[in-house]
Amino acid sequence: MRVFLTGGTGLIGRGIVRTLISRGDTPVILSRQADKARLNPSRKGAEIVQGDPSIPGPGESAGGGCDAALNP
Q: Where are the alpha helices (H) located in 5-61, listed in sequence order?
C-alpha cells in the first residue's frame, strides 16, 4: 500500500513511517526539507517528495496513486 503523509518527519509521523515500512508499505512523505529527510536511514524504503503543504506546487500531485493519506 502507498500512503501519502504530510508531517511524516515529525514526532508522530516518524512512528507511522517506521510501522508502514516494517509492514512492507511505501510511505510517500511530503517534506519541506526533502534532502535532509532522505539522509535519515530510518526512512529507507520511503519516497520523499519536496514540497510545502501550505503552498501550491509540485508536491500536490505526489498523493496521486496513493491508497491513503495521513496528516499526523
A: 11-23, 34-38
